[in-house]
């Protein structure tokens, strides 16, 4: 992913509240448009870097289960 995309996405959401982030994520998912996926990827990357090892483990366990069905 191009760093300019990361920077643009970060600038667009900087200062957003938790509710605004929820709305952004839910909107991106409900639309199902592939051009929104890089934004969700940037969100995941930021979350991953800020998470503890236990949080990362819990997330990857849930993700693994979600893709087993």
Automatic annotation (TrEMBL):
A Pfam match: SSPI
Compartment(s): Spore core
UniProt key word Iron-sulfur: no
Keyword Amino-acid biosynthesis: no
Coarse class of the protein's main subcellular location: other
Regions that span the bilayer: none
Induction cue: Expressed only in the forespore compartment of sporulating cells.
Keywords per UniProt: Sporulation
Top-rank lineage group of the source organism: Bacteria
Family to which this protein belongs: Belongs to the SspI family.
UniProt-listed NCBIfam families: SASP_sspI
Name this protein carries in UniProt: Small, acid-soluble spore protein I
Organism of provenance: Lysinibacillus telephonicus
Lineage per the UniProt record: Bacteria, Bacillati, Bacillota, Bacilli, Bacillales
Recorded name of the encoding gene: sspI
